[in-house]
Specification:
The complex is a heterodimer.
Chain A: H1 3-11, H2 13-20, H3 22-43, H4 76-111, H5 114-127, H6 132-143, H7 147-174, H8 177-184, H9 189-226, H10 237-245, H11 252-280, H12 282-289
Helix pairs in contact in A: 2-3, 2-11, 3-4, 3-11, 4-5, 4-7, 4-9, 5-7, 6-7, 7-9, 8-9, 9-10, 9-11, 10-11
Chain B: H1 2-29, H2 34-39, H3 45-55, H4 61-73, H5 87-122, H6 127-140, H7 144-158, H8 175-209, H9 212-219, H10 224-261, H11 267-276, H12 280-308, H13 310-315
The chains are: A mainly alpha, B mainly alpha.
Chain lengths: 300, 316
């Protein structure tokens, strides 16, 4: 085996650990399934999700409508598949915004001069108190509701969270020997950041990102339900919930499906985050094997 | 302690300032011409000028900000652009629904989280303990709207025990009816928040079982359960207090959605309506009150935690 291969093997060892955990495996499967559904729905759904078919209103689940139809005869499975696209888009978008904001805040908060660092820390502590939904409503009142508003508000809310967790981690890594060695070897601060600092905080970061995407899925559903997310014509799980709510006393079963889709997706992302944390944090797995070891009292 | 309270109080003031500035910038500065946004695309220049006049938009921005903040300090949160009603009096009125709803939700959340969290930690590795934590994980992933719909189907539509929607017009004049209308919404928020809180209780309990004083108590002849309940639970309770601030934020968010679902005339539903109608001055006041409340609760929680936790007192 060449050195590069050995290195590559070691690098992805966490994936094997992740798969061996029940939380991680469930998370991987769900996230892949939702992603795949969204991809397939881009090209194919069993029926046209927006096609009104008055003949087949409120069909019970069966063949050909596996999950039944809604009040205008639209196929619920196709609506759910098309809605997965919106969900994936919002989760990825919010993840990207959160990554960008979180990294910038963490890097500025960890690597600059003292008073800038401290101000960023205080700012992050304050911003973290803002509930994502209130940020979204604030933006909606100015620009009207849209998926962009959902993406940006969840991105801000979770970017701050990521910064809060990543910043101390960056500070910790900053004082390790290999960073010092990098500096001694003549790496510029930026190269050092890219080669040594960021890869070492990546685990913490990715865990947060996974949890943040779960929040994004919930927020999209909630805000679309309130009328501040996806436009009514767009396929979205939140919109579907809102549409079906009107008939809930007559057709309670139909409401089950979109809710189930949201719950499974959120659960998958949450468990993926839990699994990633366990797979990438060596101290945690050690703690797991020696569960009863008394721990030092943490005085925060 | 006094030193800590002062520093923490300064942070609270700073937080309130940042919150108000952010809200002001977003709602007054970013839109460009606020009067145009409020009036909509079809407004005549006269209408726009009238709005500008009423909101004092001709003054420089810092002056507008100071006017707004000094109004708040006098208890004047501004007034609705559409109805002219004062925001503070509407908040007081709608608070009669939202505040009881929040308190009921929180009580239910704690009543669920404390026993089940402790049990799931003590039964870790056993089938029932695992089942409890899987249940909590799953419930915490449920969107609150959907949980509400499912509860409506079961308890209002099928069983007919509780009203599915609405709040009595007479308010709390008929306390039992008002209470019954809030019960299902409060259970919805309480169960979801309780599931999240339960995970904190579980990990706090697990941490407590490993502590020296619990082991010592067990070594002195108490059973493991007795030792945990008598000596470990106080530390669990303390750790719950620290996440209470988070819970309050969760309950506010939950009530915005749930008041919509159950057609409750509360603060959350008013906010949704005002955002929809672009009543910016009103939204501005409401958002400040809600975020300010979250910040103040966070401050109070930190102080209480500091006072109650002997380890923190000694650390000084």
């Amino acid at each position: 085996m060449t050195r590069a291969q050995a290195h590559g093997r070691h690098r992805f060892a966490w994936l094997g650990r992740l798969w061996s955990l029940s939380t991680g495996r469930f998370g991987i499967i769900v996230v892949l399934a939702i992603g795949l559904t969204a991809l397939v729905a881009r090209f194919w759904t069993p029926f046209d999700p927006q096609k009104v078919d008055v003949q087949n209103r409120w069909d019970a689940p069966g063949i050909p409508h596996l999950l039944g139809t809604d009040g205008s005869g639209r196929d619920i499975l196709s609506l759910l598949m098309a809605g997965a696209r919106t969900t994936v888009w919002v989760a990825l978008g919010a993840g990207a915004v959160a990554t960008l904001l979180g990294l910038v805040l963490a890097v500025v908060g960890a690597l600059t001069t003292r008073w800038v660092r401290e101000s960023v820390a205080v700012l992050v502590d304050i911003l973290i108190a803002f509930p994502v939904l209130l940020i979204a409503m604030m933006l909606s009142s100015v620009w009207g509701g849209s998926l962009w508003v959902v993406i940006i508000s969840v991105g801000i809310g979770f970017g701050v969270n990521i910064a809060r967790v990543t910043r101390p981690e960056l500070r910790r890594v900053l004082h390790s020997d290999f960073v010092l060695a990098g500096r001694a070897a003549g790496l510029t601060p930026f190269e050092n950041l890219w080669r040594h600092l960021l890869p070492n905080v990546a685990p913490v970061f990715i865990v947060q990102l996974s949890w943040g995407m779960a929040v994004a899925v919930l927020a999209e559903a909630g805000l679309s339900y309130l009328g501040f997310g996806a436009p009514p014509t767009e396929p979205s799980w939140g919109i579907l919930l809102k549409d079906l709510q009107t008939y809930i006393s007559v057709h309670p079963l139909s409401v089950v499906w979109p809710g189930l889709a949201i719950t499974i997706t959120v659960l998958g992302l949450n468990l993926l985050g839990d699994g990633l944390r366990e797979a990438t944090d060596p101290t945690l797995s050690r703690r797991r094997t020696a569960a009863r070891t008394p721990q030092p009292v943490v005085v925060s | 302690m006094i030193r800590y309270a002062l520093t923490r109080g300064a942070l609270l003031l700073l937080g309130l300032f940042v919150a108000s500035a952010l809200i002001f910038v977003t709602l007054r500065v970013l839109p460009g011409d606020v009067a145009q946004v409020i009036a909509g695309l079809n407004a005549t220049p006269e209408q726009i000028a009238a709005i500008r006049e009423r909101l004092g938009l001709d003054a420089p921005l810092p002056v507008q900000y100071v006017t707004w903040v000094s109004g708040i300090l006098r208890g004047d949160l501004g007034s609705s652009l559409l109805t002219g009603a004062s925001v503070s009096s509407e908040l007081v009125q709608k608070g009669q629904v939202t505040i009881p709803l929040g308190l009921m939700s929180m009580t239910i959340a704690i009543l669920i989280a404390m026993p089940f969290g402790v049990i799931s930690a003590m039964r870790r590795g056993h089938r029932d303990g695992t089942l409890l934590s899987v249940g909590a994980q799953t419930l915490a992933a449920v969107p609150v709207v959907w949980a509400g719909m499912m509860l409506v189907v079961v308890f209002a539509v099928w069983l007919g025990w509780l009203p599915a929607q609405g709040f009595p017009r007479s308010g709390w004049a008929d306390p039992s009816l008002a209470f019954r209308s809030l019960l299902l919404p409060a259970i919805t928020i309480g169960v979801i928040e309780g599931a999240m809180l339960m995970r904190f209780v579980r990990s706090a309990t697990l941490q407590a079982t490993g502590q020296d004083f619990v082991r010592t108590a067990a070594a002195k002849g108490l059973t493991r359960t007795q030792a945990l309940l008598r000596h470990g639970l106080p530390t669990v309770g303390l750790s719950i207090i620290t996440v209470l601030g988070l819970q309050v934020a969760g309950i506010i968010v939950g009530s915005v959605v749930i008041e919509q679902l159950f057609s409750l005339p509360g603060i959350g539903r008013m906010l949704v309506a005002d955002v929809g109608a672009r009543d910016l001055p009103k939204v501005q006041g409401e958002l400040l009150v809600l975020t300010g409340f979250v910040l103040i609760v966070g401050f109070a929680v930190d102080l209480v935690h500091r006072t109650l936790d002997p380890r923190q007192r000694e650390a000084e």
